[in-house]
What does this fold into?
Amino acid sequence: MSHSSREFSVPKSYIGTWVATLLLIVSFVIGLLVFPPLFEKPTEEAASGVLFVGRFHPILLHLPVGALIVLCIMELACLTRSGEEKLGAAALLTLWVGAAGSVLAVLAGIMLSREGGYEGGNFTLHQTLALVATCGVLLALVVRIIAMGQGNFELLHAYRAVFFLSFGIMGLGAHFGGNMSHGSKFLTEHAPEPIKSQMIGMEKWMLSFVEKPKVVEPAATPAPAPSPLPNPAPEMGAPTATVSPAGNEKLVFQHVILPILEAKCNKCHNEDKSKGDLRMDTYELAMQGGENGSNIIPGKPAESLSIQRIDLPLDDDEHMPPDGKDQLTPEETTLLRWWVQQGASNKQKVSEVQFPAETQAAVDAVLKGQS
It folds into this structure.
């Protein structure tokens, strides 16, 4: 191919674009040196200013995603020489905006991780893939500037290979970030079965490279629990009823209480995202509590932090789950309070207890869904 056939336009100078791009790259490098990525629990408390900036991460990440999606469409139009002549400059500007947004989002995300409560395989993959993708987008930006400066149409093909690969990695990293925010079943729960199995298999394969063997931490020794009450505490204010025979071989915590925690609490208190150093995905860790005090005190729901937070008004900043998340129903709240009042055991059998009458329908529905 002759040199002239490779050129799609008269070579131009992009001094201003080069200066802006080099400043962006230098800023990214300095930011990573000042705030190196952490893959373990922070060892010291972050400054309030760092956390203030970090909490913009969920907002900032939408800028690069939107810009780079638009760029994908533009690059398809730029595959022809005439398309590149018309849209090349606009594509370069969009790429720069997407690259700058990626840098800001990644640095803010690293600052946010200083808050603590972010660990595990999903977090590791989310952060690692975001870093790799951002570096790839910056490399793609450099290659596009060189190609446009030289008027080299063939070099643009190499740029697009780097860009589309980097954007794919970014999307994969975003998926693991979604797992942290919404739970690992959020994307796959309603997927068609053939797709679902493939996605879950791929997730497990990727997580196997970064997850440590699971070790259950020993629970703190709880205070002696009072003898189980034959009836609910007075605050229940209702008679009791015996569970249906279908649940005779099931355990109260595992089959009734834990599903409530999984649906309403564990999106923020799990292996990958343990806000307040609190996890509620196992009995031992739920009893162990977090940084703010005793999470569950057997026999004393009024002194148990989880029950206190649930009982707060919805507009209170300390209310749990936070406003905007799925809230506990009155029946679920009653069940949790009743379970704590009864001694917060993980060995009670469903057949051995009497649930508050107003919760019977909810209990039967949960048990039926597990049969």
Summary: The chain has two domains: 3-205, 234-370. The chain has 14 helices and two strands. The beta strands are 240-242, 354-356.
